[in-house]
Design a protein that fits this description.
This protein is α+β, with helices and mostly antiparallel strands and about 900 residues long. The protein has 29 helices and 35 strands. Among the domains are: about 30-140 and about 550-620, HUPs (Rossmann fold), CATH 3.40.50; about 285-470, Valyl/Leucyl/Isoleucyl-tRNA synthetase, editing domain (Isoleucyl-tRNA Synthetase, domain 2, Alpha-Beta Complex), CATH 3.90.740; about 625-695, no CATH class; about 725-855, Isoleucyl-tRNA Synthetase, Domain 1 (Orthogonal Bundle), CATH 1.10.730; about 860-924, Ubiquitin-like (UB roll), CATH 3.10.20. Strand 1, helix 2 (about 55-70) and strand 2 (about 70-75) form a beta-alpha-beta unit. Bound molecules: ligand ANZ.
Length: about 900
């Protein structure tokens, strides 16, 4: 073969890898393991664009590098294949989402295989496959059968809870449960009906059914999680979202709040992502206390982080949704207050939080009593109090809290200072300081005042110290078709699990993918959506699981994807353990990454897996943005003027397909055929060319800036694509796709190819020993590549390969001693060409079985030095001498140098000082 024919080479090696199962991973305790994982994609109809493979290329490079270092690597790929777009498409076209999904997966797989990834395709999983989701359903069942024991700080079986209830009710047990769980004795428990017992157990189960305020999206006909809602609109589709109370399944993730927080200390993730998780979990240390309502048998519970300011409380504020609001509104306030509540309720929490300017609220007419000083204070309803946080009620301290201050100012309520010196700069909250005007707290510092106030609460049984988490339980159901059915049926209105042996509970066929006429989810359309249990036939749950169910545990299934008796074989799970490198987008910071950590911890608690944290190290790749091109139409004509001349005309810019532009030059013929209305387009050119304008924007169809990796591969090859994506810049950075530099990368590969060939295009490898210079070039590249890969700095290695190949080309180096290791170090980045060169050099086995070359420091050590020779303080000559010479030898050489002799004129100098490896000073 003469020239570098990447198309043939790439197809050949992809087929070879597949046929020989090169990347098939098996447990091998004799080798260290490396588990490399990419966040698996949702197979959308649009296929991959060049932004998608960025992270996959980086992880592929790492896994190939790890193989060369002797690791046993697991590098799987699969599909998160339940989801909204396929279902929306099904609604529009009637095509079953399974068919759409299958087609999309096929397209994705072809595209991925084209890029030459070292994926173990045998391990592929699809979350929408019944063989997969039976285990998602199985995990759901384990959660349903578990509660959280606070004493042991782990999940335990609900049966053991029932045993405790039988013996001592719930008086002794410390378990996570709903706020409104009553206290009951063993007798009471034993006398309860089955229904009552089941209702109580739902308050403890780790997945449970409860009336919850949810984000309801009427346009999508489903509930959405907080992270699926952005500024009051659905993330997908941008439809309005309302707050609504509904019976919903939830996951008691809050039971794991503290462990989710602590676990962050043990993982190697970027600080911003950890911080986002910490904020989401939102731990606050404070106190909970009750205020008696005057003249009513009611107590209002508040959560405060500043109980030290209790003497500065001048009113209470309740969320508009608070349960007591109705009963607290007095007759004379009714009209104003109720009207206010109506308006406030329809604003989402997010809007209310985001909007700090609008101050709205209403006085209820009722009063509460501050138990510390017996004072009567007004009870207000206020927008800024959130129903879902803490107790949905606050003790307002306008002198020391911004929101309370603004509210008090607006409504003319009292502002009473109780902390010394904290009022300056208009900043109130968060500052400590000595307490004033506060009876027995006066004179104390914040911490002591808090402790003392909490002691007072506890003595008087009106409150206690409390740790509060902002995180809420995660709503687990969606009123959609294309998701996992819940393995639950209803008997007398109560949920029961189907038998494990009846799994998977397969998604039924329906005539349409829409809600039923009476508003039931699409599964309400299925003919026999019932369960045959021992005591009869019962209706099955009609909602399905949310998108995050299947993705919360897929990393375990990859280890053992075809196991029919377990979700993963324990031996395999122990061997592969946690993911060593997880690469994916930062947009999953609080969704997927919290849910999968939660499920892993739960599976650990029940002894199903050996690890508590699923992802040891994580890198979040930046997004590749589109680089849009523009043409400039002279208004009212079909004439387009080149970028440099556009200001001389009255023009309007128009997006043009980037695929008919090369190096910002428009291909005029292609432009004319791009759209029918452009067939007779005319151009005003600059030097015979049409130059387009350019701008960086999100990569999207509507901006005509989507670049398909298939096109790049066809034109330049997969190795060029891989190198180029890495060359674009640091992996974590957001950066535009700019094809302008791709020719350079492609030329580099041609040069690399040429190093191994003579001018006639024949393979030509010399067996001669390499020179020092050649070894130096090689070893500095080995070192750089190794350091870069260890630091996940991919772009810089590409640059060093280029330098290396340029240097070797200049030296006309074709020696095996250099070119073999060079092929190996390039192979993680450009595996096809490396395989081909490796085999051309006579190797029978894939380059993947080679060893990463060992870096030898000695080749980098300089063995000579250019000595400046200074005569009477001025450098008069330069002399290159071996570093192995002694001081005397250096002196002798310096003095016998003709340039130096000219200055000394044959005289013996007064003094000669030799600093070895640096300088020679001569004084005459
Ligand atoms: C009195 C006080 C005085 C407060 C002071 C703060 C400063 P984090 O840190 O976020 O937990 N709060 C409690 N529940 C609330 C709710 N449902 N909606 C809105 N605000 C609520 O904040 C806790 C503080 O936020 C609590 O402490 C309470 O105001 C308020 F100088 O109580 B504080």
């Amino acid at each position: 073969m003469a020239d570098y024919h990447f198309q043939e080479i790439e197809k050949k090696w992809q087929a070879y890898w597949e046929k020989n199962q090169i990347f098939n991973a098996q447990v091998d305790p004799s080798k260290p393991k490396f588990y490399s994982l990419d966040m698996f994609p949702y197979p959308s109809g649009a296929g991959l664009h060049v932004g998608h493979p960025l992270g996959y290329i980086a992880s592929d490079i790492i896994t190939r590098y790890k193989r060369l270092q002797g690791f046993n690597v697991l590098h799987p790929m699969g599909y998160d294949s339940f989801g909204l777009p396929a279902e929306q498409y099904a609604i529009q076209t009637g095509q079953h989402p399974a068919i759409t999904t299958e087609q999309n997966i096929k397209r994705y797989t072809d595209q991925l295989k084209n890029i030459g990834f070292a994926f173990d395709w045998d391990k592929e999983v699809r979350t929408s496959d019944p063989d997969y989701y039976r285990w998602t359903q199985w995990i759901f069942m384990q959660l349903f059968n578990s509660y959280y024991d606070k004493t042991e700080d782990k999940a335990k079986s609900i049966d053991s809870l029932v045993q405790q209830f039988k013996v001592s009710g719930n008086t002794i047990i410390e378990a996570v449960c709903d706020e409104d769980t009553p206290v009951f004795s063993a007798e009471a428990w034993n006398e309860m009906s089955e229904k009552e017992q089941q209702e109580l157990l739902l308050k403890y189960r780790l997945t449970f059914l409860a009336e919850t305020t949810v984000n309801w999206c009427p346009a999508l006909g489903t509930v959405l999680s907080n992270d699926e809602v952005k500024d009051g609109f659905s993330e997908r589709g941008g439809h309005p979202v309302e707050r609504k109370k509904m019976m919903q399944w939830s996951m008691r993730i809050t039971a794991y709040a503290e462990r989710l927080l602590q676990g962050l200390e043990s993982v190697d993730w970027s600080e911003p992502i950890k911080e986002m998780q910490r904020n989401w979990i939102g731990k606050s240390i404070g106190a909970e206390m009750v205020f008696q309502v005057k003249g009513q048998n009611k107590q209002i519970k508040v959560f405060t982080t500043r109980i030290d300011t209790i003497y500065g409380v001048t009113y209470l504020a309740l969320a508009p949704e608070h349960d007591y609001v109705k009963e607290l509104i007095t007759e004379d306030q009714r009209e104003i207050a109720e009207a206010y509540v109506e308006v406030a309720k329809n604003r989402s929490e997010r809007d209310r939080m985001a909007d700090v300017k609008t101050i709205s609220g209403a006085f209820t007419g009722s009063y509460a009593i501050n138990p510390f000083n017996g004072e009567e204070i007004q009870i207000w309803i206020a927008d800024y109090v959130l129903a879902g946080y803490g107790t949905g009620a606050v003790m307002a301290v306008p002198a020391h809290d911004d929101r309370d201050y603004n509210f008090a100012k607006h409504f003319g309520l009292e502002i009473r200072q109780v902390i010394e010196g904290s009022m300056e700069n208009g900043s109130f909250a968060g500052k400590g300081g000595t307490i004033i005007n506060s009876d027995f707290l006066t004179g104390l510092e914040m911490k002591d005042a808090m402790n003392k106030a909490i002691a007072f609460l506890e003595e008087n049984k009106i409150g206690k110290g409390k740790i509060q988490y902002r995180m809420r339980d995660a709503i687990f159901t969606r009123q959609r078709y294309w998701g996992e059915p819940l393995p639950v049926y209803f008997k007398e209105g109560l949920p029961y699990l189907i038998k494990e042996t009846d799994l998977p509970l397969v998604l039924p066929e329906v005539d349409k993918y829409l809600p039923t006429e009476d508003g039931e989810p699409p599964l309400g359309r299925a003919k026999d959506w019932t369960y045959q249990s021992e005591d009869g036939e019962f209706p099955l749950e009609k909602s399905t699981m949310p998108g995050w169910a299947g993705s919360s545990w897929y990393f375990f299934r990859y280890m053992d994807p075809r196991n029919e008796t377990k979700f993963v074989d324990p031996e395999k799970e122990k061997y592969w353990g946690a993911v060593d490198l997880y690469i994916g987008g930062a947009e999953h910071a609080t969704g997927h990454l919290l849910y999968s950590r939660f499920w892993t911890k739960f599976l650990y608690d029940i002894g199903a897996v050996s690890i508590e944290e699923p992802f040891q190290k994580m890198i979040n790749q930046g997004m590749i943005q589109g680089r849009s091109n523009f043409v400039y139409r002279v208004k009212g004509t079909n004439t387009f003027v080149s970028y440099g001349l556009k200001d001389q005309y009255d023009t309007s810019a128009m997006h043009v397909d980037v695929n008919i532009v090369h190096n910002d030059q428009l291909n005029l013929d292609k432009f004319k055929t791009w759209r029918p209305d452009l067939a007779d387009a005319e151009f005003i050119l600059e030097e015979g060319k049409y130059t387009c304008g350019a701008e960086v924007e999100k990569m999207s169809k509507s901006k005509y800036n989507v670049v398909n990796p298939d096109d790049i591969i066809e034109r330049y090859g997969a190795d060029t694509l891989r190198l180029y994506e890495m060359f674009l810049g640091p992996l974590e950075q957001f950066k535009p796709w700019n094809t302008n530099g791709i020719d350079g990368v492609s030329k580099f590969l041609k040069k690399l190819w040429k190093l191994y060939h003579d001018n006639q295009g024949n393979v030509s490898i010399s067996e001669e020993n390499a020179s020092k210079e050649e070894l130096k070039t090689l070893h500095k590249t080995i070192k750089k590549t190794q350091d870069d890969l260890d630091n996940h700095s991919f772009n810089t290695s590409v640059a060093s390969f280029m330098i290396c190949v340029n240097e070797l080309t200049a030296m006309k180096c074709n020696k095996r001693e250099i070119l073999e290791p060079l092929a190996v170090i390039v192979s993680p980045y450009a595996p096809h060409i490396a395989e081909e060169l490796w085999s051309l050099m006579g190797h029978q086995q894939s380059i993947i079985y080679a060893a990463f070359p060992e870096f030898k420091e000695e080749y980098l050590v300089e063995n000579s030095h250019e000595y400046p020779i200074s005569i009477n303080g001025k450098v008069r000559a330069k002399l290159s001498l071996s570093l192995s010479l002694s001081k005397e030898e250096v002196e002798k050489a310096a003095l016998s140098d003709p340039a130096v002799k000219k200055w000394t004129e044959g005289n013996t100098p007064k003094k000669v000082i030799v600093v070895p490896g640096k300088i020679v000073n001569i004084v005459i």
